[in-house]
């Protein structure tokens, strides 16, 4: 039987959830974490798309470096957090760096794989029009990889949230991760579960929106 103070009743959690949603401090922490996650996915996702395109276009670089992505991708990124602190300090920069590092690998791997699946006819068309590299990326590669890009971003966003929250639990004075670890330290279990519920629902909501967008774009593409 679970200890009721460790796993509080649903009534207590729902009540605390209601109080949480009218607490200004919660929205301050939510804003901090949301900003860090968005910046992390922008940096990590953008870098992942760029690296994925480079590896997908160049077979030599693909053979040399893509295995490293697959080896390093599953590595727990939290082990790099002390390095991030030394490089970016104890402020938001280290949390953004953790989120960016976490999101980089799934995006890069997804894009590198998608580049190999692009119809060669499309590439020949672009080359026949003498498109430069930037034009090829904008007019050929990215439109042809719309679904893999969005799926990569979906996965990257999920791990960016995890990486950012983990970093906030280790060394921070603001953010949802900090709020969760503070409630744990004070043994305020109902509030901790309420915070975790909100984080879970927000992550599911964002992932659902991106998934619906992918399905909508795919449906329009086949009409």
TrEMBL record:
Boundaries of every ABC transmembrane type-1 domain copy: 26-210
GO cellular component terms listed in the entry, alphabetical order: plasma membrane
Membrane topology recorded in Swiss-Prot or TrEMBL: Multi-pass membrane protein
UniProt keyword annotation of Transport present: yes
Main location: membrane
Gene3D superfamilies the record matches: MetI-like
Protein family (similarity comment): Belongs to the binding-protein-dependent transport system permease family.
Subcellular location: Cell membrane
Pfam families: BPD_transp_1
Transport is among the record's keywords: yes
Coiled-coil segments: none
Transmembrane segments: 37-56, 68-90, 148-167, 192-213
Name of the protein: Taurine ABC transporter
